[in-house]
Amino acid sequence: MTETADDARDHYDVTGEGPVLLLLPGGAGHPMGLGPLVEALAARFTVVTYDPLGLAHGRLGLPVPEQQVADWSEGAHRVLAAVLPEGGSAYAFGTSSGGIAVLDLLARHPARLAHVVAHEPPCVTVLPDGAERRAELLGQLDGDERPPAEGESATPMGVFLARVLHPFTAYTPVPAPDTATRLTLAAGTGSRGQLLHRTTEFTAQRLGAAFTEFPGGHLGALDHPVDFADLLTETLRSSAHTSS
To answer: Which UniProt keyword terms apply here (predicted)?
Structure first.
């Protein structure tokens, strides 16, 4: 059974049974293409898919201000407060921009999280040459021909490029006390030798967290949903045994 939040601010879907797993998509937060991953995970978890801008809930095409990482993480915290019992905690998984959001969520609200997996968060400013690498990344993704971010022909990619890319790639995660054992940084095997693999591994070292590789590249959650879900489940279950 799938439920959809009625709150105009916080849009999310709930499906499956078991421990709560909060899922934050990448890009502009639209969960497009994640259906097979959610289906695979829902056999083991109560999957709460957060749509921070409501793009999959009728808000695509409406004006969107420039996004801040804290807005997404605080929205995710409100969602957890809505779905968890008082004092309860959840797992969280985010990929790309969603990976940045779950890093910030862990730093701000560690008591609500049992374990977090951040997959290829593009927080390239952590690198010693981060300013140069960010400029290169923005140069690759910024272009003269952008899909629209507003109006009838708006696309999630248009929203991402216009409102999410710049502020999110400027984010630098800050180590939070007593959270390293509840955090795993993940990069795709297909991303080896690329900027975001290097960024992810360096972020794990900076935060004192575990690092692991997942199937596929940056879009591994879409391209290999079953294998991705299996490894994510194994990672989260292993973290529960370690912390017990």
So the answer is: Hydrolase
CATH 2.60.120.590, applies to 11-238: no
Spans of all domains in the chain: 11-238
d(CA 134, CA 122): 9
Digit-coded pLDDT (tens) for 110-167: 999 999 999 999 999 999 999 999 999 999 887 668 899 999 999 999 999 999 999 9
DSSP states of 137-183 as a string? HHHHH--SS---SSSTT--HHHHIIIIIHHHHHT------TT-GGGE
